[in-house]
Each structure stands twice: as C-alpha cells, then as structure tokens.
C-alpha cells in the first residue's frame, strides 16, 4: 500500500525534460478523464510515479504546472473541476423568443416522479461535485454537498424533502476515509433519520471504505493527530480524491441505475421527445406570427 508521506529528502530541482514529461502526463490524464480536481490529478501523477507523494509536490509542482498550462491555453479550464466558487443568480431572459428557445433546448421530464424509489447522492467535498455532476445530472439525481459537517438547517431541509416523496429513499454517501470523514457520514445518517422518522430511508456509504483502499491500492496519508477523533481511528487516511475519476463516476452510475425501472424510463424518454417537439412547434408558430406582424 502506498503512503502519502512528508518528504525528508532534499528537494530535487527537475530538469526541463522532466517537467515536460510531467506536463505531458497531466495533459494525457485530463484528456482521457475530465473534469478532475487538482488533487485528483496529483494522486494520478503520484500513483504513476511522476511526482512523490508529498504536499510539496502537490503545491509546488502539480498546482504550479496546472496553473501555467491553463494560462498558456494548453489545458482547457473546463478540464479542472472547482465547484467551490459559484455565482447565485436566477435564470432570466431578454425576451419571449429566448424563453421559447430555452424550453426547446432544456425541457426535461422528472425521471423520479414515476419511479418506485427516490435517490440522492451526497458528497463531502465541494470541489468533487464538478466531477460527479456529469453523472447525477444525466439521471436527474440531486447531488448534495456537505462541505465537511453539514449545517443542521441544511440536513433538516433535505430530510423534509426526502420524507415528502412518499416512497423508499436511497441515500448514497461519498467521503474521505479519515476520522472526521467517517464521522460525518455517521452524523448525517443519524440526523436524516431523526428529522424524517417516518421515511423509508436506506443510507449507504459508497466510498471511501477500508476494503477499497486495499483492493485498489489507493494512496494513503498519515492520519492527522490534531483531529479530535483520531484516537478512535486506526491506520492511515485516504482522501476521496485518491480514487480515479472514472472509478468514482462508475460507482455513482451503478448505485443510480439499480433503481431505474427500464420500461418506465423508456416511456419517459419517448414522452419527453414528443413534448420537446411540441415546444418546437409552439416556437415555430410564434416565429411565424411575429413575422406576420
């Protein structure tokens, strides 16, 4: 098992050829699997031996080079996920034509309205939401971000929404394997059940789990002794970012698809297609009438 250690070796100044090799490896990794967080790129490079598993390599090499590569236009900004900074603004339109065009392109039927169960995916880290949203968005599944320990109000409102569905709810959690990361999922499950006691709720921690660390040989790091929960935690820690992005996406895809009624979903897609065509006809009719005026 690999370990995320603090370097005790004098810093090695890389040659231009070595830097070029790291840059090329990062480009190829991101080209094949994007978006990734910066830390995911670091773990990919460390696992493959391009950089040591140290915080110095993460900040001094990976962060620095990714910044340069994006500013030079070599790596697209969209290949790096960062969901920690976003703008809050309602969707607005300049005129009626824009409204109609928006509905033609964006109209979707609710996938879970007619499904026998309801599904949510919860994730500890905000930055990784950009990695998993591609999967959850395609299946119309809420992606809930705790950002560490979630606030009481956030969990209460989520529990009320789950309880209002009136059907079995399946909550899938993804978080770090460390003292706080393990405790967050425990507290979250307890609070959700407390705030929605009548709900038929099924809670599962999907990752990171101990068996995955050994099975996939995930990079570890020393557990922080400053964490107040470290005394009850055995062994090293593993960040969720240490899991390759394709593995994370596959896990999310699998837990969602097991609750999809295929016949119901096929009917939904057919209906959605017909209704989108209706929006197109409304838009065409509106355009014709506007031209006549």
Topology:
Layout: H1 16-32, H2 38-47, H3 55-71, H4 96-106, E1 118-123, H5 129-138, E2 143-145, H6 152-163, E3 169-174, H7 179-195, E4 201-207, H8 210-215, H9 245-257, H10 262-292
Parallel strand pairs: 1-2, 1-3, 3-4
Keyword list:
single chain; 293 residues; alpha/beta; Dna Topoisomerase Vi A Subunit, Chain: A, domain 2; 3 domains; 4-stranded parallel sheet; 10 helices; 4 strands
Low-confidence stretches: 1-10
Strand content: 5-15%
Mean pLDDT: 89
CATH topology heading of the largest domain: Dna Topoisomerase Vi A Subunit, Chain: A, domain 2
Radius of gyration: 23 Å
Largest sheet: 4 strands, parallel
Query: What is the terminal separation in angstroms?
Result: 73 Å
CATH class membership of the largest domain: Alpha Beta
Number of helices: 10
- Could you say what the CATH architecture of the largest domain is? 3-Layer(aba) Sandwich
Question: Percent helix among the residues?
Answer: 40-55%
> What is the general shape?
globular
Q: Based on DSSP secondary structure assignment, what is the total number of beta strands?
A: 4
